[in-house]
Amino acid sequence: MAKGFGMNCIKYLVFIFNFLFAMTGLFTIIIGAIIQSSYHHYENFIGESFWTAPIVLMVVGSLIFFISFLGCCGAMRESSCLILTFSVFLMIVFVTEVGIGVAGYIKHSELKDVLEKQFNRTMEDYTTSIEAQHAWSLVQGELQCCGINGPNDWKRIYINTTVPSTCCHLLPENVKQCTSVYASQEGCYPKLLNFLDTKSLLLGFVGIGIAIVQLIGVVFACALSRAFRENYETV
């Protein structure tokens, strides 16, 4: 068995790191599940391709959790093979995350144009598509907005100043019909774009944090694997 204080120190550091890393994997799975369950109904305005991110988060989180377990077993059993396998898997996940990050950045640069196109399309389909009506009701009700850039956009659909009831969030008691006068003056396009930008920034910082932890883990694991191998060679 390995006796060196330095190697024991690294071994327990790797074990503690993997426990924390497993928690980050679990956290990543939870974040992906929350985004997928809470905001997937905006896919009518964003497009299905943009909602692959939460699924990717859950898959990566599951891989991180499994890899962390492998690293813990390798550290406790002082197995050079398991630790080396752990390092390789961790590096593969890191490279994959970098690729996903680059793809996400490219997709994010297209978000503004995609949103504008989808908002116009769903408004054009509003009178003939129940799905479009449901999508608009959701986004206007949840974000407390009206139309694409404001309530005047509904003039494409309504002849007078009438707008969908979900545009009016504080309608006076004596007023029975929602009109552009009482509707929210904020458009849904800028509000949803700002909302998604904020979430993307948060996910970006979380991703960078996890990537840094992964690199530290690879360094520790490689040092531990080398120490195990040198110890058994001397024995």
UniProtKB/TrEMBL annotation:
GO terms for cellular component: plasma membrane. Its main location: membrane. Pfam families: Tetraspanin. Disulfide bonds join C146-C167. It is a multi-pass membrane protein. Keywords: Disulfide bond, Membrane, Transmembrane, Transmembrane helix. It comes from the Eukaryota. The chain crosses the membrane at residues 12-35, 55-75, 82-106, 201-224. InterPro entries: Tetraspanin/Peripherin, Tetraspanin_animals, Tetraspanin_CS, Tetraspanin_EC2_sf. The keyword Disulfide bond applies. It is found in: Membrane. Belongs to the tetraspanin (TM4SF) family. PANTHER family: FI23944P1-RELATED (PTHR19282:SF482), TETRASPANIN (PTHR19282). This is Tetraspanin. It comes from Chironomus riparius.
